[in-house]
Amino acid sequence: MLISIGAYKIRNQSKYVMFAFLIYIANVYTMHRARGTFEIIGMANQAVLPITTYLLLCLQDSKKELLLYHITKWFGMILIPGMIIYICSFFVNLPSLGIIQTHYGGDFYGEPCYNYLFYLKPITVGATGMFRFNGPLIEPGDLGCVSAFLLYATKFDFKRFKYLWAVLASLILTFSLAGYLLALFGYSAIMMTKNKFSSKKLLLGVLVFSAVIAFGTYYNGGDNYINHSILSRLQDDELAIDNTNGRISTQKLEFFYFMFENPSVLWLGYDKATISFINEQFGAGAGFYNQVLNIGILGIILYLLPYFYITFKSRDRRYALLSLVFLILYAYQRFDLFWISLILCYTFGICLNDKEFELCKK
């Protein structure tokens, strides 16, 4: 039986009902901002994610852990052949299943890619001048952030989740600055919750970080992946703007700052026609600033509210608050807060940690 009717589960279910309801409210608001109206069919469609989320959260804790294990397992099994193809593609010209046009949704399309099923290889190199691993996803940054979330949700427990090494390997191959920073913060947060964040480990981390910088700076005169994909993005202002805050251009930042001169626009976001013009001229983007332009401060609050709610309803407040900081760091870069994979990583991580927290208190 997946949904218990015991007192403890009923209390938890009411918490999950509210979490799912808050997601629904945010989705309906976003739909209204995009379409300018409340449509019955659209509102019904927006209920699919909250209902799915609620049903999954109502699983017993043992089932949640089992589901998280299988998610990690199958994700890792998909990534392994993708990484093999990615590495081999540097040395041999592999036959593909054809060329596909990637699609972000709406009127926004990405670069065409060679379809290797487990790996979508862009036809042209990106802004960093190199091919980065993105697996079956459209962008390396997406894979890097999802991998970092999964590592955090599983507490970097490579013994319990044996395919987690593939997730870590894929994160490394993405050369995603956002993914690296999230994973670094996540690992530090897990060590803090376990009271294992010692000065020795901090020193080791500093040494490893320094070694990576030295390698990227000096190996082959700086002509290497680490320098091109990470270090150069920390040094080049234009490249940093494009890659560390959701690919927002200087022009779009001007629209963002202009919002503070009009409280109504700041609160609700720009109208549909203005947003279409901005996106057509300067690109869609994905991070915090882009979302403020689209849905305003009210929309940002509605998107974050479910996570604040579930965080402050947790038993182990320390772990939950660190999870919230982790989420906010992610939101600055991507703000795709209602991916089902992200929702499950966040909520399952808190639920399973609460279970361990209760067992430790007994």
UniProtKB/TrEMBL annotation:
Q: Which domain of life is it from?
A: Bacteria
Regions that span the bilayer: 16-34, 40-59, 71-92, 163-190, 202-219, 292-310, 317-332
Q: What is this protein called?
A: O-antigen ligase domain-containing protein
**Taxonomic source organism:** Bacteroides xylanisolvens
Q: Which UniProt keywords apply?
A: Membrane, Transmembrane, Transmembrane helix
